[in-house]
Amino acid sequence: MYYMTQRSRTRELIGALMLPIFAVITPRTGAAHEVAAQDTAPLTLLVVIFPDTAAAQAAMTSVSQTSTVKPSADKEAPPPNTAGRPVDVQWIEPYYAIASKDRSGKVHVQQHGNKGDTPRDQQSAHTVDGVAAMLGQHPSKSDQAGAGATRAGISSADARELQKEFGPGETALIIVVEQPDVPGVTSSIKNAGATGVYDAPLVAVSAE
């Protein structure tokens, strides 16, 4: 009986020692799937119209403060966005622009945040820059908005609508968000004083 008891205790001890080992080598499939979902989520362009630049920048501060991503217990909440600082929320790409059209129709663009190195970040920054430049152009008289829309990474129909709706004296906040979060971001921005919100899914840009 003593021998059997010792064997039983030995097995319990080995089992207790093996548990941490399995915990280390077992992949966290849930976390991996979450990261993969974030990397593959479709991206959507949001062009938000405000009466002036100050209102557009204040809206970005408001959005960054109301992030749906809760920080972990050992991390502090991200600081609010200010001019020139990237937006520290997961559902908004870290680079954006604010375009203002004066009464004469000339567009002035302010770039904010940092352009990332990943293909996802580069695609977002490419669209932000392309749309900002496109807003300073007149809509094409043809049914399509022209090559500029293709280079910006949105459809010709969306590009044409944006060009027509962006009027003198207005300011456009140009951001890229994950498609599932469009309703939440749009709601937050509208509460921050936006007078209009236009969304356009990002599309693949054809090689030239």
Helices and strands in order:
Elements: H1 2-25, H2 29-40, E1 43-50, H3 53-65, E2 95-101, E3 107-113, H4 119-134, H5 147-152, H6 156-165, E4 171-178, H7 182-191, E5 196-201
Antiparallel strand pairs: 1-4, 1-5, 2-3, 2-4
Could you give a short description of this structure?
By secondary structure, this protein is an alpha+beta fold. Helix content is 44%, strand content 17%. It is built from 7 helices and 5 strands.
Gross morphology: globular
- In round numbers, the mean pLDDT is 74
How far the N terminus sits from the C terminus, by CA atoms, comes to: 82 Å
Helix content: 40-55%
Radius of gyration: 24 Å
Number of domain units: 2
Structure summary, number of beta strands: 5
Structural class: alpha+beta
Poorly predicted segments: 1-5, 17-37, 68-86
**Strand arrangement in the largest pleated sheet:** 3-2-4-1-5
Largest sheet: 5 strands, antiparallel
**Secondary structure tally, helices:** 7
The H-and-E topology, N to C, reads as HHEHEEHHHEHE
Residues in β-strands, percent: 15-25%
Multimeric status of the protein: single chain
